[in-house]
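Example S7 (structure tokens).
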């Protein structure tokens, strides 16, 4: 099996994808039209031209604007269903999707509308495509901790449908320490916890996510490499990093893919995984990310298999399920 065939054949789990970041321009136009909402673009081509980012904030401004057309339960369903179809194409058999409730509740959309639409798509993905999933709700870190507490309160009636909480949006200037109390409350309520850290922010933010938020995984974390003591800690604790190569390239976290550190991290024993982050905005879904790093870094088939194994080990599925997928990967030649 050559490298491209192996990437396609590998079963994979996606652990870092923002469902609002899977919003393809074609679907955005269709939903805007049926909801009679005007968007500041005349064509799909014009939308794509606007996806010319130079850092995280320049992306987030456009990403939040795009989410404004999502109003009804059916809109959230359609958004998630379109992503599940991409998963099926890429042999992503399990996904743990982020959603940003505040992006919607702050516009007057009920929490229930969002969760019902997403949950129905998850149920259909299991029934029709055999894809399993979990939902992780993220607090927007540019907003206050008080606002995050309100969001946690709103989520409690849906606790059985949300496996964890996360932290996303503008990183620099909004360290994990800002959310220490609300994460403690979320953990007490039984949520697993993850946080974006070390994407644009410094290694110090990764320490805070570990020590103060007590996360189960770090999202991104690529800047951890700048701190050798932190690297030792990540390796010793087998702490997963959900790395997103095309995102890092598009947001200028790295200058070109040959400079990406995912292979060095893997070789040093860090538990890295490959993910798409906001695939509609960054130019590719799961397999596009695998292909981009495999080609730029000349990854071996063994390394590609290890990355796929890591994705299941770092996931929130049962040990039995993990073992089932890992055995299937190990059997691939
Ligand atoms: N929200 C969506 N994508 C994000 C990213 N890459 N970093 C932080 N917040 C985000
Ligand atoms: Zn992200």
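Recovered sequence:
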């Amino acid at each position: 099996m050559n490298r491209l065939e192996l990437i396609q054949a590998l079963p994979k789990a996606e652990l870092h994808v923002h469902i609002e970041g899977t919003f393809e321009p074609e679907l955005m136009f269709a939903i805007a039209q049926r909801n009679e909402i005007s968007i500041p673009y005349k064509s799909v081509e014009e939308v794509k031209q606007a996806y010319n980012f130079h850092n995280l904030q320049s992306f987030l401004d456009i990403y939040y604007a795009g989410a404004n057309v999502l109003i009804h339960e059916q809109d959230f369903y359609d958004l998630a269903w379109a992503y599940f179809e991409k998963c099926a194409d890429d042999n992503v058999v399990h996904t743990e999707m982020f959603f940003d409730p505040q992006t919607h509740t702050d516009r007057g959309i009920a929490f229930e509308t969002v969760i019902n639409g997403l949950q129905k798509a998850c149920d259909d993905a299991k029934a029709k495509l055999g894809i399993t999933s979990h939902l992780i709700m993220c607090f927007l870190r540019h907003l206050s901790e008080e606002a995050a507490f309100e969001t946690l309160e709103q989520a409690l009636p849906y606790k059985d449908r949300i496996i964890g909480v996360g932290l996303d949006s503008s990183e620099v200037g909004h360290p994990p320490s800002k959310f220490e109390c609300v994460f403690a409350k979320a953990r007490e309520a039984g949520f697993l916890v993850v946080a974006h850290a070390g994407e644009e922010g410094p290694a110090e933010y990764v320490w805070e996510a570990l020590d103060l938020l007590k996360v189960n995984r770090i999202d991104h974390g690529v800047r951890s490499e700048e701190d050798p003591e932190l690297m030792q800690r990540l390796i010793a604790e087998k702490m997963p990093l959900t790395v997103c190569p095309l995102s890092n390239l598009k947001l200028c976290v790295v200058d070109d893919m040959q400079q990406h550190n995912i292979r060095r991290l893997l070789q040093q024993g860090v538990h890295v995984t490959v993910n798409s982050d906001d695939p509609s905005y960054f130019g590719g879904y799961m397999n596009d990310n695998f292909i981009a790093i495999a080609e730029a870094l000349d990854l071996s088939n063994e390394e590609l298999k290890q990355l796929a194994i890591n994705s299941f080990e770092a996931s929130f599925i049962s040990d039995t399920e993990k073992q089932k997928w890992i055995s299937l990967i190990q059997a691939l030649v």
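Notes on this example. The CA atoms of residues 1 and 333 lie 7 Å apart.
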